[in-house]
Specification:
By secondary structure, the protein is an alpha/beta fold. The chain is built from 7 helices and 6 strands, in the order βαβαβαααβααββ. Helix 5 (129-146) packs across helix 6 (159-170). The mean pLDDT is 94.
Length: 222
């Protein structure tokens, strides 16, 4: 049986001019995860990232913490969706009296994401939700096929791809998978780890969003 550990990147620089850059907390989360994986005896046959800088930085931290001397493969199938475009094409709703900026932003993000996932406005996006989910599913299938029997892969990616890989393995049809993705994506913890195994019964999700390696002060969601 082979294993794939899907890891959401460390905390990025939310609210900064360049989001795609780990915060100090994000770098520490990555090193902590690496130490925890090494302590568990994890020795990856493959380490894979998407193309975002935050993916590469998370990989650097994990490898340093684990003291792994592993080459890192880059697969664009594990890239995050363009959340900035998803937001940009949806008018920001008016702030409700007494609503904090954080709550207002979350409401905007949820409304914009619902619009994107509906499939009714695909021409407005460079990548539709259907195209996004297809490339993530293809990346997961490709990785599972490339792994040797009893091999282990560690994938450093983003919350969106992790949530879709998990939703696709838990639900049986597109509507149910999309609904599940909408619930899983917002609760993905930075450096949270989801485990997928591949054996005689196919590819199966055995855990989602494990983050027991993090102390309470290091648990973040954005």
């Amino acid at each position: 049986m082979s294993s794939i550990l899907l890891v959401r990147h460390g905390q990025a620089s939310f609210g900064a001019a360049d989001y795609d850059n780990l915060s100090d907390t994000g770098h520490e989360q990555s090193r902590v995860l690496g130490r925890a994986l090494a302590a568990r005896g994890v020795r990856p046959d493959l380490v894979v990232t998407g193309r975002m800088r935050r993916h590469a930085q998370t990989a650097d931290g994990v490898l340093a913490g684990a003291t792994w001397d592993s080459e890192v493969d880059v697969d664009p199938g594990w890239d995050e969706f363009d959340h900035l475009q998803v937001l940009a094409v949806h008018d920001r709703p008016s702030t409700v009296d007494g609503e904090s900026e954080k709550v207002a932003f979350q409401r905007w993000f949820e409304e914009a994401t619902l619009r994107w996932t509906s499939g009714d406005h695909d021409d407005a996006y460079d990548e539709s939700f259907g195209a996004f989910t297809s490339r993530v599913s293809t990346a997961l299938d490709r990785l599972a096929s490339d792994l040797p029997r009893s091999g282990t892969a560690v994938v450093l990616t983003s919350g969106g791809p992790v949530a879709w890989a998990c939703a696709s393995l838990l639900a049986d049809d597109a509507v149910a998978r999309t609904a599940l993705w909408l619930r899983l994506n917002p609760v993905s913890v930075n450096t949270g780890t989801s485990t997928v195994v591949r054996g005689q019964r196919g590819t199966t999700l055995v855990s989602f969003n494990a983050h027991d390696h993090l102390s309470p002060d290091l648990v973040t969601y954005r």
